[in-house]
Amino acid sequence: MKQLILTIFTAILITSCTTSGSSNYAKRKSPDVETFMHQAAYPLKTVPAHYPRKAQISNTEGWVFFEFNLSESGKVKHLNVIDSHPKGIFEEVASKAISKWTFKPIKGVSSYKYVMEFQLRGY
């Protein structure tokens, strides 16, 4: 179980170079994956999300919490953003990326949840 959680968080970590600066947005924790573990989606194929330049320049990090259904082949259907932080920054790029992903369908699960995090790392 811990390996699955680690794999999920590793897959959703998006890194990028940035200049130093401070964000105008207060940090807010992303949803706890353990609260929806029975619905957690396991990605098989991912496409990186583009880190918005505005967020990069302002040193803004965040996350997008999705709920969706999967086709039999594991493609995303009926994508819905449940929550995000900060609002209006990452939803569009995260939605475009996750729509191209393939997930492992789980027998008996019809609705899946996934948190995509956006984190900056200075080098």
Describe the protein.
The protein is of the alpha+beta class. The protein has one domain (2-118): TolA/TonB C-terminal domain. 20% of the residues lie in helices and 27% in strands. It has a three-stranded antiparallel β-sheet. A two-stranded antiparallel sheet has the order 1-4. A hairpin with a 5-residue loop joins strand 2 and strand 3 (76-85). The longest helix is centred in the N-terminal third of the chain and has 11 residues, at 2-12.
Give the helix/strand layout:
Blueprint lengths: L1 H11 L29 E4 L7 H5 L4 E9 L5 E10 L5 H8 L3 E3 L7 E7 L5
- Please report which band the strand proportion falls in: under 5%, 5-15%, 15-25%, 25-35%, 35-45% or over 45%: 25-35%
Q: Percent range for helical residues?
A: 10-25%
Supply the CATH class: Alpha Beta
Number of helices: 3
- The helix-and-strand class reads alpha+beta
Distance between the termini: 32 Å
Overall CATH architecture:
2-Layer Sandwich
Biggest β-sheet strands, sense, barrel: 3 strands, antiparallel
For the biggest β-sheet, the strand order reads 3-2-5
Number of strands: 5
Helix and strand sequence: HEHEEHEE
